[in-house]
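Allow me, if you will, to draw on your knowledge of protein folds for a short while. Thank you for your consideration; the sequence and its tokens are set out here:
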Amino acid sequence: MRSEPAPSGIPAAARASPPVAACAALFLGAALPLVAVPLPARAQRALDLDVGAWAVLGSDPALYSAALRRPLLGPFEGSLETFGLVDRAPAGRSLYGVGPELTAILSRRRLRPYLVAGTGVALELGPSTDVAAVWSAGAGLDLRLFPWMGVRAEVRRFVEDRHFGGFWNLRADDRMGWQLSAGLSIRWGGGPGGGATRGRPGGRGTAGAGDAGRPPDGRVPAGADVASLRASVVDTALAMMGEPYRWGGSSAARGFDCSGLVWYAYGAHGIDIPRVSRDQARIGSPVPADVSGLREGDILLFSDDPPRVTHVGLYIGDGRFIHSTSSGGVEIGSLDPGSEAYEAWWMDRWVGARGVLGG
């Protein structure tokens, strides 16, 4: 039996319905980083809610989307988005789909520019019902109004790939256009007790910048596993990544100054240390300015006016430290000249460290 030739202009392979296996492979392959990368302890999650429009020839479908977002590695965040592109034209084609996205945060300040790219699968409803791949890439701005909420605006190039040929191999009947949207980002997590103002567990309030502090001894709670405690202190500080700098701040609700971040990380685990850097520089035991002698949780001391300590950070291992700076908020630095996070300015001002936890 002889098969009928395909209509001119569209190959038979392009007209064939995409197999379910191809849809599943596309979705699962792109979503793998969302489940394969471990989530940092108490890392901040977000729910993004957006509305907008997709500007395409012939109609402008309304856009509605919701996405759950979580940190991955470094500046990258992953999300799983569900969306609807509702076309109310008489012969309109609406899309309802789901897929993973990857976001690169370009700045951790209050106004955060970002780049985003995503893919997924969608059900097309209209004159006919079909399954399509979707592709998108663009940029946006996220303004953090509060630690738990921000507003965002975004523009993307969005492609409906009806034949699963890829965005690099589109057909004449594949739709593409610009998506414009705005919405809210609602955040939670990022430290014990959520976003409320908090001090040490147990009820003492947040110390202000004017609190000279007293020189507590930084004693480890009875029965504590020191290695585990070191890791927990570091995890608590890392969970504050991206929080803004605030002079006198020592909570996720207000932001952090350098000593406030260290004070908060230790205080969250019942370890009472001084609040200000000059007193933190006297606690525990001295550690020379040599990376090989550092351990997780050590307090790094910096000075641009020796012998006075003017800045502190928390060592997190592998030559890296976390600190809060007036230019970038809570961020990662490095003492390793081969690291991308290395800045000679900090290395030149590193004068030593203090070991708070023994063992």
The longest strand covers residues 130-146. The radius of gyration is 26 Å. The CA atoms of residues 71 and 209 lie 31 Å apart.
